[in-house]
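Entry 14. Structure prediction run on the chain below.
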Amino acid sequence: MYKRQGEAEPLFVEALGMRRRLFNGDHPDVANSLDKLAGVRRALGHAAQAEPLFVEALEMRRRLFRGDHPSVALSMDKLAGVRLALGRAPEAEALYVQALEMHQRLFAGDHPDVATSLNNLAFARRALGRAPEAEALYIQALDMHRRLFVGDHPDIATGLNNLASVRQDLGRAGQAEPLYVEALEVYRRLFKGDHPLVAMGLNNLAGVRLGLDRAAEAEPLYIEALEMHRRLFKGDHPDIAAGLNNLAFVRRAMGRAAEAEPMFIEALEMYRRLFNGDHPNVAMGLSNVALLRQSMGRQADAEPFHLEALEMRRRLFPGDHLDTATSLSNLARVQQELGRASEARHGFDEAVAMLRRLAPNGSAVLARVLWRSGSARLGSGDATGALAELEEAAAMAAKVLPPQHPHLTEYDNTLAKCRNALGK
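Output returned:
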C-alpha cells in the first residue's frame, strides 16, 4: 500500500488537473482532489509539500460554504494536522480551536465530530507541553463517546488509549495501565482474530509495562503484536517495522543489545524500501541504530547515522523542529564522547537555541538538552560554564516533569557535582 502511494501520486496530480479544467473556479470536487493529493504527499513524508494544498482546499471551501460548515471544519483539522507534523504546534492549536468551536455550533450536544475535535486539540496541547489541559480534553471526549456508543466501540477504545497516553506523559503510568488493558479488551471483543487495532493495543500495553520497569512482561506482548502484523501484512509494512523497533527497545532494556541491533537495522532497511528518499520514519530508524551503538560504546559507528538523520530532518522540516533539535543534541553527544568538544559545543548551542524558540516557556526536552550541554561542559572541566545550564535544567524540569520522574534526581545530582567542583 505504501509503495503504491508513490505510484498513485501522479494519478492524483492528473485527477486534480482534470477537475480544474472541468470546473472553472471553486468546486467541491476540486477541493476534494486537493485534499487527496495533500494526504498522499503527507503520507510519503512530504508534509511541507502537502501544506499549501491543504491551505488552498480550506480557502476554497470557505468561499463555497459561507459561515459554519462541516467541510470547512474538516479542512481546518487537516491543515492543523500537517502544521503539527511540521513542528508548528501553536498554529495547529489555533486551527483546532476554530474547528472545535465550529463543530460545537453545528452540532448541539454530543456528536462524533465534536469528540474528534476535542481529541485533536488535546493532541496539540500535549505537543505544546500542556499535558494537564490535554488530559481534561481527552476525558471530555471519552465521556462523550461513551454516551454516544453504548457498549464496545472503536472510538471508546481510542479514547481510552489517548487518556492512558497522556497519563504516561504526566508520570502516572500506574493509572495508564488499566486503561490500556481495557482498550485491548474492547478491541479483542470487537475484532476476532488478527486485526491492526488489536496489535496496536498489544503494543500500547507493552509500552506502559516497559515504562514501569516490567520488561519481561512487555516482551511477549511485543512479540505477539509483531507476529500478528506479519500475518496481516505480507512483505514490507510500516507496522512491521514499528514492531521490530518495539521489540528491539525492550531487548535493549533487558540488557540484550546484541539482539536489539539487527532488529533496528531490519526496521531501518524496511523503512528505506517503503519510503524512497527522505521520510520521518527513515530518520527515526537512523537515530535508533545510532543511539543503540552509542550505548554499546561504538561512537564511531553511531556518528554517521546521527549525521544522516540530522541532514534528513533539516530537509524534511525547514526551520525549527523538535526532531531537528533532538538530532543536533544526539550528534553533539557523540562528538563530545569522541573528544571533539568544539564541534559538540556548536551542536548543543544550536539545539538549545532552537528549542528555546519552539518552547519559550520551557519544556522537558529543553531541560534534557540543557542538562546534556551542561554535563558536557562539566566533563570538559568547565564547571563555571556548566553551572548556569545545569541550574536552569533542574529548575525547568521541576516545573514541567511530575514529582517522581527519574530525571529530576539525575539533574539534581549533576548540579550538586558541579557546585562541589566550584567549592559551593
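The two ends are 61 Å apart (CA to CA).
Filed with the rest of this week's runs.
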